[in-house]
Design a protein that fits this description.
The protein is mainly α. It has 10 helices and no strands. It has a single domain, classed as Up-down Bundle (Glycerol uptake facilitator protein).
Length: 266
C-alpha cells in the first residue's frame, strides 16, 4: 500500500482532479440549459433537444479529459466501475484500484462542493437539483436495467476499440460519443449516471438518496459483465492495457502489454 501510494500518487491525484472537473462541467452545463432563467431553456422547448445539448457538452468534456495530459497519464478512468473492471481484467494492481476508486469518489465530491459553494442558488433550483441522477417514471427496477445495459455497452465498446491497434487512438472519441448519445436517449429512464462517484457527488449536497443502490451496483455489474463476455470470446491475453489513450509519452502504471502486443491486431 505504502509503495503504491508513494510511486503512483500523481496518477491518483489526476483521477481526482479529472472527475472533479467533470462534475464542475456537469453542473455548469445543467444550469446553463435547464435553469428557468436560462435563455437556452426559453429558446429550446423540447426536453429531448435540451438533453441533446447537455449530452454533446458532456461528451466533449469526457473527450477533452481523456486526451488531456492528465488523462493520458492516469488512463482517464474517472469512474470506479471502469477501474474495478480493469482490475478484474488483471490490468490494475489491487492497491492502485483501491486508491483510484477513493480518488474518484473524493474528486467528484470535491468538484461538486466547490461549484455548490459558488452557485448554490442556481444549483438548488428544482429544475437543476445539483444535477442528481434518479430513476425515471418507470421506477428503480427499470433504472437498474437501463444503467446495467448502458454500462455493458460502454465497456464492450471500450474493450473492442482499445484493443485493435488501428482503432485504439479513437477510444476516447468512442467513449465521448456514447456519453453524448446516452444522455438524451437513456436519461429519462435513470438519469444516465453509469458512474457511482458521479451519482454520489450530486447526492451529497442535494441530500438526495433515492435508489442510490441502483447507481452503485448496476454500472459495476454491467461493466463486469462486459469484461466477462470479452474474456469468454477473446481470452485474457486480448486486453492490452487499462488506459483509454495509450500512444503518448507519459508513463503507464498499469500491467501494460500494449506496445508491441501480438493481440493488438491490425
Amino acid at each position: 500500500m505504502a509503495r503504491a501510494l508513494a510511486r503512483h500518487w500523481p496518477e491518483y491525484l489526476m483521477e481526482a482532479l479529472g472527475l472533479g472537473l467533470y462534475m464542475v462541467a456537469a453542473c455548469l452545463v445543467r444550469v446553463a440549459v435547464e435553469h428557468p432563467a436560462s435563455p437556452v431553456r426559453g429558446a429550446v422547448g423540447s426536453s429531448f433537444l435540451r438533453r441533446a445539448v447537455i449530452g454533446m457538452a458532456m461528451g466533449l468534456t469526457a473527450v477533452g479529459l481523456i486526451y488531456s495530459p492528465w488523462g493520458q497519464r492516469s488512463g482517464a478512468h474517472l469512474n470506479p466501475a471502469v477501474t474495478l473492471t480493469f482490475w478484474r481484467l488483471g490490468k490494475v494492481a489491487a492497491w492502485d484500484a483501491v486508491f483510484y476508486v477513493l480518488a474518484q469518489l473524493a474528486g467528484g465530491l470535491a468538484g461538486m462542493l466547490v461549484v455548490a459553494s459558488l452557485l448554490r442558488q442556481w444549483l438548488a433550483d428544482p429544475a437543476v437539483n445539483y444535477a442528481v441522477t434518479r430513476p425515471g417514471l418507470f421506477g428503480a427496477r427499470v433504472a437498474f436495467v437501463a444503467e446495467l445495459l448502458i454500462s455493458l455497452g460502454f465497456m464492450i465498446t471500450v474493450l473492442l476499440v482499445s484493443n485493435v491497434a488501428r482503432l485504439a487512438p479513437l477510444t476516447g472519441l468512442a467513449a465521448g460519443t456514447l456519453i453524448a448519445t446516452y444522455i438524451p436517449v437513456e436519461a429519462p429512464l435513470s438519469g444516465m449516471s453509469m458512474n457511482p462517484a458521479r451519482t454520489l457527488a450530486s447526492a451529497v449536497p442535494a441530500a438526495f438518496w433515492m435508489s442510490l443502490w441502483v447507481y452503485f451496483t448496476a454500472p459495476v455489474l454491467g461493466m463486469l459483465l462486459a469484461a466477462e463476455s470479452y474474456l469468454h470470446v477473446r481470452g485474457a491475453g486480448a486486453v492490452a492495457c487499462a488506459k483509454f489513450h495509450h500512444r503518448n509519452r507519459y508513463r503507464c502504471i498499469f500491467r501494460c502489454a500494449y506496445q508491441g502486443a501480438d493481440h493488438a491486431r491490425r
